[in-house]
Specification:
The protein is mainly alpha-helical. Helices cover 58% and strands 6% of the residues. The chain has 4 helices and 4 strands.
Length: 137
């Protein structure tokens, strides 16, 4: 509801309670400056209605701030989930190349000799000689 409609309702002689109900039902809120409040009072809007408009604006701003906090918390949770899934993916990729029984360059089903040079270029110290069964390609 616009401020002009509010002035029109007040000038029609509607009771203050009815105007307050209309303001609450429609969810009207306006950021009023002191000069606008004086102008509306001069045009016949009751002080109770002006108080309700100010209170409605305060509620609206509080709700917007709460919604923004929720959006930020959701964005932060999504960032944490993406980082967790990325860490999981990287761990899975590493486990593909470096199993507990050796590395992907094993030359036998039973003997895992690791990288041909005894270590990996990418991850030094993780190759070597070990016993076990290699799973993978």
């Amino acid at each position: 509801m616009s401020l002009d409609e509010l002035v029109r309702l007040s000038r029609q002689g509607r009771p203050v309670g009815e105007v307050l109900d209309i303001v609450r039902r429609t969810g009207t809120h306006h950021p009023l400056t002191p000069s606008e409040i004086l102008r509306l009072r001069e045009q016949g809007v009751a002080p109770e209605v002006l108080d309700e408009l100010v209170a409605a604006q305060v509620r609206f701003e509080r709700d917007q701030a709460a919604a923004e906090r929720v959006r930020q918390a959701q964005a932060q949770a999504a960032t944490v989930d993406r980082a967790r899934s990325e860490a999981y993916r990287r761990g899975w990729e590493e486990s593909r190349w470096f199993t507990p029984w050796g590395s992907a360059w094993s030359s036998s089903v039973y003997l895992n000799f690791g990288h041909p040079f005894g270590h990996s270029f990418r991850y030094p110290g993780r190759g070597g000689v070990g016993w076990g069964i290699r799973f993978g390609r």
